[in-house]
């Protein structure tokens, strides 16, 4: 039986850390569950909206796809060449499917680029540290699928390369 106050304090600290870790795991699970529910609702809404594509950035509005651009009410606007709704849907579905085979966490979509750079749609996973989707004016296809662990195993990872 422990009676030393120092040992009791250490055990109490360890217990608090374990409780905190458990809470973080529960929060991640709840976020994942919420994301899955949002995806299901978006899919059901998409069926009602005659197969429109839900914006991967805001996950609320539908994308408008033309031959020369993709845009959403949330502010997403990317110039493209020869893009169709079918091509974009297939690109997003294939990328998300491939990601789900490799990682259980939910990816995030962002728009990058700026003054001199082309606007790009990037799909990243903060947990798996990967960059999967690169959609720009000149490049309407998936980029190579790279993960930090695989780059390190291949010996091709250099600091600052991601």
Describe the overall structure.
This protein has 162 residues and is of the alpha+beta class. The chain folds into 2 domains: 51 residues; 79 residues, no CATH class. It is 43% helix and 20% strand. The strands form 2 sheets. Strands 4-5-6-7 form a 4-stranded antiparallel β-sheet. The protein has a 3-stranded antiparallel β-sheet with strand order 1-2-3, with no helix packed on it.
Keywords, separated by commas or semicolons:
disordered C terminus; 162 residues; elongated; three-stranded antiparallel beta sheet; four-stranded antiparallel beta sheet; 2 domains; alpha+beta
Topology:
Elements: H1 5-48, E1 64-65, E2 69-71, E3 77-79, H2 85-102, E4 108-112, E5 120-125, E6 130-135, E7 140-147, H3 148-154
Antiparallel strand pairs: 1-2, 2-3, 4-5, 5-6, 6-7
- Per DSSP E runs of 2 or more residues, the count of β-strands stands at 7
The profile of the biggest β sheet is: 4 strands, antiparallel
Low-confidence stretches: 139-162
Please estimate the helix content. 40-55%
**With helices defined by DSSP (H or I, 4 residues minimum), what is the helix count?**
3
Please give the domain count.
2
Structural class: alpha+beta
Question: How many angstroms does the end-to-end distance come to?
Answer: 51 Å
Strand fraction band? 15-25%
Shape: elongated
The ordered H/E elements are HEEEHEEEEH
CA radius of gyration? 21 Å
Question: What is the residue-averaged pLDDT?
Answer: 75
Strand order of the largest sheet: 4-5-6-7
